[in-house]
Task: structure prediction
Amino acid sequence: MMQRRHFLRGLGGVIIALPFLETFAPKGALAAGPPPFAIFMRQANGVVQKTDEPDVFWPKALGKLTKAGLAAESDRAVSVLSDYADKLLVVQGVNFAFPGNGCGHSGGGNQCLTAAKVSDTPSGNESLAMGESIDNRIARELQPAGVEPLTLYAGKMSGYINEVLSYRGPKQLRSAERDPFVAYTKLFGAQNMDAAALERLKAARSSVNDLVRGDMKSLMGRTDLSADDRARLQLHFDSIRDLEVKMACALPDMRLAEMQAIQPTVGSSDNVQTVTKMQMDIIALAVSCGSVRAATLQIGDGNDSTEYTIYGQKQYSYHWISHRIQSDGASGTPIDNGAELHHEIDKIHGNLFKYLLDRLASYTIGSGTLLDSGIAVWTNDLADKYHSYSNIPYILAGGANGFLATGQHIDAGGVTNNKMWNVVGAAVGCKTNGKPMDDFGDPSLDPGFIPAMMV
Result:
């Protein structure tokens, strides 16, 4: 399932991928780094922006973003990303094109990454998108045949609306993996170990690194390996170890039986941020290895009922907070500080997105980082507490090797989100008749781009 430039094979046939290495790159590939990629992180329930409440999400002014300026706007949720101000592209004025069909949450999820119509049947909370999602388009064009986008999930699945993001085509919703250990072993080869190797791993609580240590030492000892590549390899192996340490914190014993025993708590509200970060570790490793060019991470189910801990106390369901009442419906006892709590949840998601950027930025590629080579997107399947489809949040980071005009906050002027995804798809290399992709989404939508997003 994986496309890798180079890999190591260890005991029992276990394989781990290597990051992009300058030493082994084809002539002329150094300046470009690894191929660009796109990662999509989805938050539910909209954000606290101007409706009948103050706007505490977007930067205060359009134009250039600076670290000092963004940090000074500490009342705005996006300020938590101030360290990456010069790598951000904050885009207002992008809308979903089509109405929902009986459920705002489902209809928003249907359009989030597809820019497609919502199905007539099924309807309500079971509605589906009538087109493929952008991650699928990227994988279909740029990954080897049969290699699907990485589709991950963090949080519980209540059953009302579960996955909403990734579509192979009309009404073809892709399931997402919410167990980080399962996702990790599928990607990095531990599931391919023979019984003897697995027993050695369980008995010694070894890591995958231990099983390829001999080959790793040989590779690190090569005299033609550049200093940058040597550092990159060490960081790569440290990252794998870091992931396993994080797993050990949630799963203190690496033994398979204990992993299985703790898996039922993967969907707990108490674990959602930990699981999100673990999934982000996996995504960063996957794109650094060239295993995938597109990945999605859905945080919470369709109308996310995660109970976040804020101010030291577990709060009401996030969905209730987004309604500002103690109810999933239209009436209920008011939550007096609902807007404040929603704002704090927006900041939680902002800090989780920052964690992803930190992981991508930790991989040095030539004169830049892995973050510079791709695009990470923080978005939502709603705009605000009213389930609106106008002014959907889009926070992009990276640049796709200089394709995006980063370091700015722009207003796209009310365009539909197919144009957003045309920019992202073109940035990573998707084509329409040999030219940069401009035809994503429902055929009834105007093709083209958001020019201000591009250099």
Notes: The mean pLDDT is 85. The chain has two domains: 1-20+181-265, 32-178+270-453. The CA atoms of residues 308 and 345 lie 8 Å apart.
